[in-house]
Specification:
Blueprint (H helix, E strand, L loop, with lengths): L1 H53 L3 E6 L8 E3 L17 H9 L3 E2 L2 E10 L4 E16 L5 E3 L14 E6 L8 E7 L6 E9 L5 E4 L7 E8 L3 E13 L2 E7 L9 E3 L8 E5 L5 E4 L7 E6 L3
Parallel strand pairs: 6-15, 7-11, 9-17
Antiparallel strand pairs: 1-4, 2-3, 2-6, 4-11, 5-10, 5-12, 8-9, 12-13, 12-14, 15-16
Length: about 290
Amino acid sequence: MVGGICGIISTIFLFLTFQQQERGVKASEKSGAADQAGEKRAKQEEEERKKRAEGPPITATPGGPDYYASRFAFPGRTTSLGPAANYKLGTQEYTDWFRENRAMEVGVSAYRVTLSPLHEGTTVVQNMRLANPHCTPTKYTGTAVVPTPIGGDGDSVPPVTVAFDLSAASPQPRQILSYGSPAGGGKEVWRIGGSAFHEGIYLDGGDQSDARSFDIYFFAGNKDCTFGLEVNVTSGTNDGWYPVKLTKSPDGRGSVAGQAKRYESTIIPNQDAVNELKGPGNPFAVIELKKSKF
């Protein structure tokens, strides 16, 4: 009997010992798997850091500028508004209608680009320049459109404003000093000054990197223009020019229509904010640039 009891106790002891060993093996396996996963993550993070360090020092994200566009034109004449008479600015119907009729901003267009550093340390935005600008006499003389005004939200950090005069022989990035209509009206006067980059704009990289937005204005004169944009950036000991997208389209280029003297028809909202189709004319004040020495 004693031998039988001893045998049972021995069997129980061996079973418990086996369970403990099995739990130890599983715990070791889990610990090893966790270590391997941690090593894999660390390796991936190191590879990503290395890839960022070897790539462009900055990333650019297009967005919506503070500027409210108040003049548009279609290349062809509009003879009937149909349901578009009741479309409101900011609605999807209004946007689709503009797109379908190939509308373009007239005289001046604005784009927002937000720049963020990708490298560790300090990145300095030194300058901007146009990339492959192309301008031709305006074809947007069909229908002029004055949209209904809408409000907008302010920014906690004002964007840096930059102006390019596309009618100049060599457009340069300038400061915007002021704009408005002088007493008596007749013109919309924009005053632009010297270089918008007389001082570099410093952005800190790293895990808590900085970001800065730029609202960039393009003035067309009397020509239709398309253009790209490049930014000059210094990061560490490297300095170079890098393309940035102004729009989310594949080529990222911007565009603006030239000012025409006369349009075949006009669309102007009445006091009830209903779009009214009228005859030939020009509802737009002439945009005039007054430039200080660069």
